[in-house]
UniProtKB/TrEMBL annotation:
Name of the protein in its database record: C-type cytochrome
Top-rank taxon, per record: Bacteria
Signal peptide extent: 1-28
Biased composition (Polar residues): 426-438
Length: 462
C-alpha cells in the first residue's frame, strides 16, 4: 500500500524509476482559503464562490469584471512589476509594499493598501497613475489579496530546490512509455545541471485525495506531458498557478499562454486548416458534418469562423453526422469534400455508409477506418492520432522536444527562476522564427508543422 506521502518518482540517474518520499512544502502562515481567494483575484480567475468584484477604470463610472483587469496582467504573475518608464507597474509583493520605495517614502499597511486598490492613493497621499484601475473589493477580498501577496514569492518557486527542479507527470494507464522517454530525454538534454539543479520527475498518479490536494502535496514547479485522460487535473493546475506544460492532448487554442503551453496543433488551428483544405476540393457549398462531442463542436466553430473571413465563400452548411448517416448524400448532390469532425464511431459509421465521398478530417479516424477495412478517400494530416484518440503517446521524439524546450527556458530564466519567469522564456522560445514549437498564428495555420508532428510521431501522411 502506498501512504499518502509516498509517491513514485522518476529521477534522472542510473535508475529511471525509484520510490521516493517527497517532502511536503509548508505554506507560509496564511490561511489557505484566503491565499486561494487572493490568488484568484490576482490572476483574474473567477472566484470559487460569490459574485466577481468590479474594477473601475479611472474616469469611468462603469464597472467591469475585475478579471478583465487582473493584477497579474500589469504587475506580472510573480508580482515583480513590468513595463517601462512612467508606464511601469511596480513590484507589489507584500515585502515590496511594506517598505519605502524611491517613489514613496511611506510603507504600506493593510489600511493604506486597501485605499490604494480602491481609490488609487498611495500612503503618502499621492494619486497613483490613471493606468492603475480602482477595485471595489470587500474587506475579506482585500485581506485575501494581501495574504496572497505575502506568499506569492514562495509559491512562484515551489518545486525549485538547491539541486532539483521538480516536474509532475502522470503515467496512469498501463503501457505508457512516456515518463521513461521523458526521463531519458532529460538525461540526454541535461547532462549537466542547470544552475546546479537537475530535473526530477515526480509521478502524480495516486488514488488518494482530491486532485487539488494531490497537486499541492506534490510540490511541483510545473506539470508536464499530462495525457488527454487527465483533464480533471487541468483546472486545478490553473487554480493553483502551476504551469501545464505540453499536455499530450489537443488544446482549444484559447488557453492563456502564461498558464498552458502546448506543442501540438490546437483544435482551433486544425479547424482553420481543415477549412482551407476543404475549400480547395469543394465545388458547391461546403458541408461540415459535426458530431456531438465538445472537441468536434470546437473544430466546426473554428472552421466556420475561418470561412467567414473568406470573401465570396458561401457559409458552410452545418449538419449533424447522425443526420448524414441517415440521409447519405447521393452522387450529384455534393461533388466536393465534406468536412468531418465527429467521434470516431460516428465517423466510421458515416464512412461505411458513404465511401465514395471525399472527406477532410482527422487522420487518426481515417487510419482507424483503414484498419477496419472501410475504404475512405481523405485529404489531410491533422494531428497525432494517438493523441486525438485520447491515448497516451509514447514518442521519444516528442519527449526530446519537450525536454529541450524546458531545458532552454530554465537556463534563460536564470538562477532565481520563477514559474512566471520560466513561462515567459518558454513562450519567447516558441515564438522564435523556425522554432518547432511555434504557437498558432490565427492567420496562417502551418501545414508544415502538422506534417512535422506526424513525421515525428511516426505517422505517415495519407
Ligand atoms: C492596467 C494595469 C494595472 C492593473 C490591472 C493593476 N495595476 Fe496596480 N498599478 C499599475 C500602475 C501603472 C501602477 C503605478 C502607478 C503609480 O506609481 O503612479 C500601479 C500601482 C499599484 C500599487 C501602488 C504601488 C506602490 O508602490 O505605491 C499597488 C498597491 C497596486 N498597483 C496594486 C494592484 C493590485 C492589487 C491589482 C489587482 C487587484 C492591480 N494593482 C492591478 C497598473 C495596474
Amino acid at each position: 500500500m502506498r501512504g499518502p506521502q509516498a509517491r513514485r518518482a522518476l529521477t534522472i540517474g542510473a535508475a529511471l524509476a525509484l520510490l521516493l518520499t517527497v517532502p511536503v512544502p509548508v505554506s507560509a502562515g496564511e490561511p489557505m482559503a484566503s491565499v486561494e481567494a487572493g490568488r484568484a483575484l490576482f490572476l483574474g480567475h473567477a472566484p470559487r464562490e460569490g459574485p466577481e468584484p468590479l474594477a473601475f477604470l479611472r474616469g469611468s463610472r462603469n464597472g467591469v469584471p475585475a478579471s478583465r483587469f487582473a493584477c497579474a496582467n500589469c504587475h506580472g504573475r510573480d508580482g515583480l512589476g513590468q513595463g517601462e518608464g512612467s508606464l511601469r507597474a511596480p513590484a507589489i509583493r507584500w515585502p515590496d509594499l511594506a517598505r519605502a520605495s524611491p517613489q514613496r517614502s511611506d510603507a504600506y499597511d493593510a489600511a493604506s493598501f486597501a485605499r490604494a486598490v480602491a481609490e488609487g492613493i498611495d500612503p503618502g497621499g499621492r494619486a497613483l497613475d490613471r493606468l492603475m484601475p480602482g477595485y471595489a473589493l470587500s474587506g475579506a477580498q482585500t485581506a485575501a489579496l494581501i495574504a496572497y501577496l505575502k506568499t506569492i514569492d514562495e509559491e512562484q518557486r515551489i518545486g525549485v530546490g538547491p539541486s532539483t527542479i521538480r516536474l509532475g507527470i502522470l503515467s496512469a494507464g498501463t503501457g505508457d512509455g512516456f515518463p521513461a522517454a521523458l526521463a531519458q530525454a532529460f538525461a540526454q538534454k541535461l547532462p549537466s545541471p542547470v544552475f546546479g539543479r537537475r530535473v526530477e520527475l515526480v509521478s502524480l498518479d495516486s488514488e488518494d485525495g482530491p486532485a487539488g490536494e494531490r497537486l499541492r502535496r506534490a510540490g511541483i514547479f510545473a506539470a508536464v506531458g499530462l495525457p488527454h485522460g487527465s483533464r480533471e487535473l487541468w483546472p486545478e493546475l490553473r487554480r493553483l498557478g502551476i504551469p501545464n506544460l505540453f499536455p499530450r492532448a489537443l488544446l482549444n487554442g484559447d488557453e492563456p499562454e502564461a498558464e498552458t503551453v502546448g506543442l501540438l496543433p490546437t483544435l482551433d488551428a486544425i479547424g482553420r486548416a481543415a477549412l482551407d483544405q476543404a475549400i480547395t476540393c469543394a465545388k458547391g457549398p461546403l458541408t461540415i458534418a459535426v458530431g456531438g462531442d465538445p472537441a468536434s463542436a470546437r473544430l466546426a466553430a473554428a472552421a466556420r469562423a475561418r470561412a467567414a473571413t473568406r470573401p465570396g465563400l458561401p457559409a458552410p452548411i452545418l449538419r449533424p453526422v447522425a443526420e448524414l448517416i441517415r440521409d447519405v448524400p447521393r452522387p450529384g448532390q455534393n461533388d466536393g469534400c465534406i468536412l468531418l469532425f465527429a467521434e470516431p464511431e460516428a465517423v466510421l459509421a458515416l464512412l461505411s455508409a458513404s465511401a465514395p465521398w471525399r472527406y477532410v478530417g482527422l487522420l487518426d479516424q481515417f487510419a482507424l477506418a483503414r484498419e477496419r477495412g472501410i475504404p475512405s478517400r481523405h485529404e489531410l494530416v491533422l494531428a497525432d492520432p494517438r493523441i486525438v484518440e485520447g491515448q497516451p503517446i509514447d514518442s521519444p521524439a516528442f519527449a526530446r522536444m519537450i525536454a529541450e524546450l524546458i531545458e532552454r527556458s530554465l537556463r534563460q530564466a536564470g538562477r532565481q527562476v520563477t514559474k512566471s519567469g520560466m513561462m515567459a522564456k518558454l513562450n519567447q522560445t516558441r515564438r522564435a522564427p523556425g522554432s518547432n514549437a511555434q504557437p498558432d498564428r490565427p492567420g496562417e495555420p502551418d501545414m508544415v508543422r502538422f506534417r512535422k508532428i506526424g513525421k515525428m510521431s511516426g505517422i505517415k501522411a495519407p
